[in-house]
């Protein structure tokens, strides 16, 4: 299916999880800007590169990496995906108004305005902090586990998918989450009004629901255009 789904939400809203589910359900390619940057800035091969080192400082502090550089990377990936006649789901990108203004005309040309589905997952700030501070990431496959979803008294020392050990991300420290929440409110939320003004349907979903219920709402929004923000 040649559509573009953009999943927005504050830290811990479940963007990555829902993007993976959406990619699987609708046959889309998932491009995760945050994970792309994380792998790039923490790759030892890039140590010493001044551009990457500067990006790493921003990433680890919870500050959005330079919009000009991010836009260039995301636009190239979207064009590649479109050129092979595939659809895309992106988690949290474009992240700034600058990026949206540079990317949306390209996406509309590739997919058509009616086939672009921005989805907003709304969660409370306290939920963001609770979820992120309890999240662990597999060192090998990147599988994420929320400890808050595990049965009481159950620990998970190894990844159930590949058996590797887990780690905590720098981004998931409470003080960094506070910065990321501020960045989201000030730099990402203004995009929603911009999209509405362009005539793009924007869908709002309760991200506090269990992941399976959130995904049902996302599927409904994509297939029936329901729950549209006026």
Keywords:
9 helices; 230 residues; 3-stranded antiparallel sheet; 8 strands; single chain; disordered C terminus
Per-chain topology:
Elements: E1 4-8, H1 15-26, E2 28-31, H2 33-41, H3 50-60, H4 67-83, E3 87-91, H5 97-111, E4 116-122, H6 125-133, E5 135-138, E6 144-146, E7 166-167, H7 174-188, H8 190-197, E8 203-206, H9 211-224
Parallel strand pairs: 1-3, 1-4, 2-3, 4-8
Antiparallel strand pairs: 5-6, 5-7
Short description:
Helix content is 48%, strand content 15%. It is of the alpha/beta class.
Question: How is this structure best described in words?
Answer:
- The structure is a single chain.
- With 230 residues, the chain is an alpha/beta fold.
- It has one domain (4-126, 182-224): 3-Layer(aba) Sandwich (Rossmann fold), CATH 3.40.50.300.
- The protein is built from nine helices and eight strands.
- The chain has helices at 15-26, 33-41, 50-60, 67-83, 97-111, 125-133, 174-188, 190-197, 211-224; strands at 4-8, 28-31, 87-91, 116-122, 135-138, 144-146, 166-167, 203-206.
- The strands form two sheets. The chain has a five-stranded parallel β-sheet with strand order 2-3-1-4-8, with helices on both faces. Strands 6-5-7 form a three-stranded antiparallel β-sheet.
- A hairpin with a 5-residue loop joins strand 5 (135-138) and strand 6 (144-146).
- Helix 4 runs parallel beside helix 5.
- The radius of gyration is 17 Å and the shape is globular.
- The two termini are 26 Å apart.
């Amino acid at each position: 299916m040649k559509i573009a789904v953009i999943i927005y939400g504050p830290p811990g809203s479940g963007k990555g999880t829902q993007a993976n589910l959406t990619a699987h359900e609708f046959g889309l390619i998932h491009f995760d800007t945050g994970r792309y940057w994380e792998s790039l800035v923490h790759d030892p091969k890039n140590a010493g590169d001044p551009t990457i080192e500067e990006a790493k400082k921003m990433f680890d502090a919870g500050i959005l990496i330079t919009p000009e550089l991010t836009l260039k990377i995301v636009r190239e990936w979207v064009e590649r995906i479109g050129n092979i006649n595939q659809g895309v789901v992106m988690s949290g990108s474009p992240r700034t108004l600058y990026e949206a203004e540079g990317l949306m005309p390209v996406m509309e040309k590739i997919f058509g305005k009616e086939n672009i589905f921005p989805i907003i997952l709304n969660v409370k700030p306290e939920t963001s902090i609770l979820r992120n501070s309890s999240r662990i990431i597999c060192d090998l496959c990147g599988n994420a586990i929320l400890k808050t979803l595990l049965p009481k008294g159950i620990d998970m020392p190894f990844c159930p998918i590949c058996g590797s050990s887990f780690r905590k991300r720098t981004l998931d420290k409470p003080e960094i989450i506070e910065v990321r929440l501020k960045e989201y409110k000030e730099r990402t939320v203004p995009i929603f009004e911009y999209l509405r003004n362009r005539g793009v349907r924007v869908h709002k979903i309760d991200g506090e629901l269990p992941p399976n219920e959130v995904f049902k709402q996302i599927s409904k929004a994509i297939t029936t255009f329901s729950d549209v923000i006026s």
